[in-house]
Design goal:
Number of domains: 2
CATH class of the largest domain: Alpha Beta
CATH topology of the largest domain: Spore Coat Polysaccharide Biosynthesis Protein SpsA, Chain A
Largest sheet: 9 strands, mixed
Distance between the termini: 54 Å
Number of strands: 27
Shape: elongated
Length: 339
């Protein structure tokens, strides 16, 4: 099986946190978003040994992303890693088409800003339908691609961000295809005709056409679906992960400080005269002094003094000494009330 992961988005809704570090490389509770996604599919949707190649679709060449993925994933798992490039944002179907060289055989497509969880492991390779679409019931389906289903959860229609939804089953951005070549041919037809919806080549259009041709896709509901697309959602996702597993490194240097779990505190963190938590992630080699911090995400090698943070995002190599209550600070920032 081949896996395709489009990650060509700019992460603009998370800026300035993502001005230097791409969104998939942001860490939540000690692990990057993209690492969590790949690790989960290897252990819960299929056996790692069944994955032949993972193709990552980037906006452009990026040594930072490419080296990280090679170092963190290829060394742990046995699959090959390839990179493809979507130079212009022309939609989800076009993004997948950029990886046409591996659109063959069984193919899993999933997008890089979504974490999801199932109560039971599912081996998609054992399914007998033409494919599987992972979905989740939502309150406002007009913000998502949605499906309607008939008997046995077979999908009978796909609609991209409907104004008047006929279903509350949102597509979470994970798709399994038994025959990648059929998907490729239908995307090529779409591109040849120039058939765009909302100014882009949509994967939902491709799926709708394949369904009309007789292909049967089954909807599989996930138990939890977490979005990492904007600051509010990223903080909620971090909270969810911390509630699954709170962790404090035994290398913590603690002085006159209180920790309110759940928290994640990485290696070689220093806490001085501070209250940390709940729902705070602090990555490796950071120093926190004279601060009260809750519901926040702090990346590695950052120094914070005098903060009273709630619902905040702080990047890598930040030097902060001020008194704002909620911030979003990008990497390598020097943030002082005296400047």
């Amino acid at each position: 099986m081949n896996v395709i992961i489009p990650m060509a988005g700019m992460g603009s809704r998370l800026r300035p946190l993502t001005l230097v570090t791409p969104k998939p490389l942001v860490k939540l509770a000690g692990k990057t978003i993209i690492y969590r996604i790949v690790d989960y599919i290897c252990n819960n949707l299929t056996a790692n040994s069944k994955i032949k190649t993972i193709g990552f679709i980037l906006k452009k060449e990026s040594p930072q992303i490419e080296n990280y993925l090679k170092d963190s994933l290829a060394k742990k798992y046995s699959f090959d890693i390839m990179f493809f490039y979507q130079r212009k944002p022309e939609g989800t179907a076009h993004a997948i088409y950029c990886a046409k060289n591996i659109l063959k055989g069984k193919v899993l497509v999933l997008f890089s800003d979504t974490l999801f969880f199932l109560k039971k492991k599912v081996n998609l390779l054992n399914k007998i339908d033409d494919g599987t679409i992972l979905v989740k019931e939502v309150k406002d389906p007009s913000q998502y691609g949605v499906v309607t289903v008939e008997e046995n959860n077979i999908v009978n229609n796909f609609v991209e961000k409907p104004k008047f939804p006929k279903s509350n089953l949102a597509i979470i951005g994970v798709y399994f295809f038994m025959d990648g070549l059929s998907l490729l041919k239908e995307i090529e037809n779409l591109l040849k005709k120039g058939h765009k919806e909302k100014n882009e080549y949509q994967l939902t259009t491709v799926l709708k056409n394949l369904t009309t041709q007789g292909k049967k896709f089954k909807a599989l509901a996930v138990d939890d679906w977490l979005d990492c697309g904007n600051p509010e959602q990223l903080i909620l996702t971090n909270k969810y992960l911390l509630n699954q597993q709170s962790k404090i490194s035994d290398t913590l240097d603690l002085y006159k400080s209180q920790i309110i779990e759940p928290v994640y505190i990485g290696k070689n963190v220093v806490l001085r005269n501070s209250t940390i938590g709940p729902n705070v992630s602090i990555e490796d080699d950071s120093v926190i002094e004279n601060s009260i911090i809750k519901n926040s995400i702090i990346q590695e090698k950052t120094s914070i003094n005098g903060a009273k943070f709630n619902n905040s995002l702080i990047g890598r190599f930040v030097n902060y000494k001020s008194n704002y209550s909620s911030v979003n600070i990008g990497d390598y920032s020097n943030f002082s009330e005296n400047e």
